[in-house]
Amino acid sequence: MDTWRGVVPLTLPVMMGYLPLGAVFGVLWVDAGLSWYWAPLMSVLVYAGALQYLAVGMLAAGIGWIDLAVAALLVNFRHLFYGLSLYHLLPKGALGRPYFIFGITDETYSLLSASGQVKDSKTALLVTLFNQGYWVLGTLAGVLLARGLPPGLQGLDFALTALFTVLAVEQIRAKKDWGAVALGLLAAAVAGVWVREYFLLAASLMLVLVLLAWPEAKREAAHV
């Protein structure tokens, strides 16, 4: 792959999602009465999609930093497993390695794991960088747009849920692993009934434990 020319078309689907999603985040941030300049700074220094949406309401309500830190741990705990499965793409540079670990989001992970076009760490690093760039640009656009929109708009935060749904559908279409789909639905159902307060963390842990015990998964790991 011609690295720069290849990364741009590869990341276009994420761009189409991140520009409007970042803009919605910027609008929600300003609409919540928070200082506008923290929105782009958060997209640069935190860059955690779903957590940023969650943080808008928590900060606007005056939630303390400790509570926000705990929420961040629970929401982003799944990234630990993302990193383990992308270890073969981990850059070796002193700057590239920590940034790659920092920059893995749900959408970037989906692109790196499902596209089949990313074979080396340099391309993976550029994909990560481009995707964050789209998010930051979207956030800046949202902050600017917020000044011309009426306050109290409803339903904007559903945009993130819609993107996750699209990503899930694309992963299913690409992999056609119906066993994984069934496991995911079962884990979601169990977590939704028994541990609603920690739904995402519980569902993720159940899936990981099942996969670690799955004989086929062990055989595949041994050949990697």
Automatic annotation (TrEMBL):
Subcellular location: Cell membrane
Membrane-protein topology: Multi-pass membrane protein
Signal peptide residue numbers: none
Chain ranges passing through the membrane: 7-30, 50-75, 124-146, 201-217
UniProtKB keywords: Cell membrane, Membrane, Transmembrane, Transmembrane helix, Transport
Domain of life: Bacteria
InterPro entries xref list: Brnchd-chn_aa_trnsp_permease
PANTHER family found in the cross-reference section: INNER MEMBRANE PROTEIN YGAZ
UniProt record similarity statement: Belongs to the AzlC family.
Name assigned to this protein: AzlC family ABC transporter permease
Annotated organism of origin: Zobellella iuensis
Lineage per the UniProt record: Bacteria, Pseudomonadati, Pseudomonadota, Gammaproteobacteria, Aeromonadales
